[in-house]
Amino acid sequence: MQVFINTDRHIERTADLVERVEAIAQKELKHQAQQLTRVEYHLSDINSETRAGATDKRCLVEGRVAGLKPVTAEHHSEDIQQAILEATRQLVRGLEKVISKSQNHRA
């Protein structure tokens, strides 16, 4: 499973951030890792300079399973790490459904 991390110009892509994202992905997606070819994170600060607000950090995550359409999940939070964690957990639930349906369909 490859993990890709994209950030907007308001979120700095530091080594620490990359480590945290990869650790969350490895831990939360461990049961789906065999089927996943790629997981792509898009991190952004949606309010940045233009608006103030508590839940301005956004994580959009896309999981790709070989032979199936990508599954996406999104979460907004005031903390980027929390947004990453919750979006990844939503992705896990989505992947479980898609993988289960594809296995049942093949049987």
Automatic annotation (TrEMBL):
Pfam families: Ribosomal_S30AE (PF02482). It comes from the Bacteria. InterPro entries: RHF-like, RHF/RaiA. This is HPF/RaiA family ribosome-associated protein. It comes from Oligella ureolytica.
